[in-house]
Amino acid sequence: MDDGHARAALARVAATGWGDAEPLVEPGSTTSPRHAAVLMLFGALDRTPSDRPAAAADVPRDLDVLLLARATTLRAHPGEVAFPGGRIDPGDADAVAAALREAHEETGLDPTGVEVLGTLPAVPLAFSNHLVRPVLAWWREPSPIRVVDEAESAAVFRVPVADLLDPANRGVTVLRRGGQEWRGPGFMVTTPTGDHLLWGFTAMLLDALFDRLGWTEPWDRDREFPLG
């Protein structure tokens, strides 16, 4: 599979939705949720591709996804790895506009180089009472990225998809809250700023998307990554 086929596969998912791979959600329900959007932006690496062989699904070795590490001083989800995104403001035309605006504000990317493939069905987050719309996109013309506001983000980076799919980098996390236990997927990612554990909502979306694309490789679902 080359980058063009990877883009086409992502576009098909944007058009058809989650299917049987609908993301696992937190226990609980949302009431009058606050609406938000995240940008799931894929593209071709502008540096040396991952030295890991292509995945069994022939995923291009130069395919990557844009992520950021949230500032450790934030009240909500400090230090966590996430997609660019945030709440949909009254001035935003829709979820797409919100996701692109937030991505520009957080990473400095040029939105004109981003091809929006479509939106996926919104995912509810009961604990924070949000309803989050994932915006799936392709980086047609990659632009420089950086930490724009250190109060919001600690690092911005592009992670090879082949590394995320590597079974050696996959495991589960266990979150215990209010007498309930929530098990979710986790990914260990290596970036120029160090190793990060990708878990929670962002990991949940990537896990579901990889399943929907048929890219997931068998991995140890009993391997637990400790939180904190």
Write a concise keyword list for the protein shown above:
single chain, 228 residues, alpha+beta, eight-stranded mixed beta sheet, three-stranded antiparallel beta sheet, 11 strands, globular
- The radius of gyration over CA amounts to 16 Å
Structural class by SSE content: alpha+beta
Largest sheet: 8 strands, mixed
Helix content: 10-25%
Kindly report the oligomeric state of this protein: single chain
Counting DSSP E segments of at least 2 residues, the number of strands comes to 11
Distance linking N and C termini: 38 Å
Low-confidence stretches: none
Instruction: Give average pLDDT, whole number.
Output: 87
Q: DSSP strand (E) fraction?
A: 25-35%
- Using the alpha-carbon principal axes, give the shape: globular
| Helix count from the secondary structure assignment | 4
In N-to-C order, the SSE pattern is HEEEEHEEEEHEEEH
What does this structure look like?
The chain is of the alpha+beta class. 20% of the residues lie in helices and 33% in strands. It has helices spanning 3-16, 95-107, 161-165, 200-213; strands at residues 34-44, 63-70, 81-82, 85-87, 114-119, 123-125, 130-139, 153-160, 170-177, 180-191, 194-198. Strands 1, 2, 3, 4, 5, 6, 7 and 8 form an 8-stranded mixed β-sheet that branches. The protein is globular, with a radius of gyration of 16 Å. The model has no long low-confidence stretch (mean pLDDT 87).
